Amino acid sequence: MIKKTLFFFVTLTFVVNFLTGQADNARLAEINKQLIKADTQWVKGGALGLDLSQLALINPKVGGGENRLAFGSVTSLFANYAKSKIAWENLLSWQMAMQRLGSIENPFTKNIDILRFGSKAGFKVKDKLYVAVLGTFESLVLKTYSDFSLSSKEGNFLQASFLSPATVTLSPGIDYKFNDKLSVFISPASYKSIIVMDDEIAKLGVHGNPWRSASDFDNIKHELGANARALYKNTFMKKLNVSSDLSLFYNYLGDNHGFDYMDVIWVNNFSYELIKGLSINLLLDARWDKDIKSISGYDAEGKSILVNDRWMIAEALYVKYTHIF
Fold first, then answer.
1. Average pLDDT of 229-257?
2. On the CB side of 82, how many CA atoms lie within 13 Å of its CA?
3. Which residues, at least 6 apart from 47, have a Cβ–Cβ distance to it below 8 Å?
């Protein structure tokens, strides 16, 4: 059963990523080629996207609305090394957005908060084929309470904070670079951990840590399974850059098996270059993980309805500036 599951798992990775589009910044690709020709070892850079919205009302008429202040950012830093048979790619990103409605006394509420770091080091063993190690880390930065506010007040409780939760993976495997647009990484034996360091958050049992009751839980869940990641990038009409990053993980040690229990993270970015270095971007983030509870709606009393079998999808539209160091 495990062999059949792993075979389908690997096949699915190849098929989906051949059919889905992804791309990188065309300017970055051009600079990469120039640096390779010049035998330069490191390519470093960063990108910053900002979103700001503000509305102020003074003595508004009844039914006229309320004040609003919202801002967000998508920040990323990268450092890639290429020399002889060695390739090392590093990316750190933070997507954040918050807003405040009404009076200045009202707390800010969170819209999104995702901190990611990924590092992949490989050694070329033959043309296009690398022996590689992939490591990833994902968490959040800002404390978040049960009503999504960023500060404590009567009636709410702490629901998430840095390292609560966090996900860490370490995957040795092979990385096949079909061309400068598509690469597929496969690890048949990958380690993954779900971390919830704060006991008050861990006892809620909503982030995937082992939970039996509010007084009987573990802060860390250890998993061993197969991991696959496919990256595809392309440029269309010279200005439209599309990028897609699909990650799949299947836990051999899980109590339940089947494709419903495969963890999926699929991040897509569509970028249209306005002028050199400046672009408008659409980000789509889709996830499936039956260990993590999501909010499917609210009951008659306004309480969240938590489920384990829903796609978790986030979308953001923003303007981004990219700079190569």
1. 95
2. 13
3. 74, 75, 76, 320, 321, 322, 323
- 49: part of which helix (H) or strand (E)? strand 42-55
Domains of the chain: 2-56+66-324 (2.40.230)
Residue 76 contacts residue 318 (beta carbons within 8 Å):
no
H/E element, 53: strand 42-55
pTM to 2 decimal places: 0.84
Predicted confidence (pLDDT) per residue in 140-190, tens digit:
999 999 999 999 988 899 999 999 999 999 999 999 999 989 999 999 999
Helix ranges, the chain (H): 2-19, 26-37, 199-202
Rg (CA), the chain: 22
202-214 pLDDT per residue, tens = 999 999 999 999 9
Alpha carbons 313 and 212: distance in angstroms, whole number: 28
Look over the chain and give the mean of its residue pLDDT values, rounded to a whole number: 88
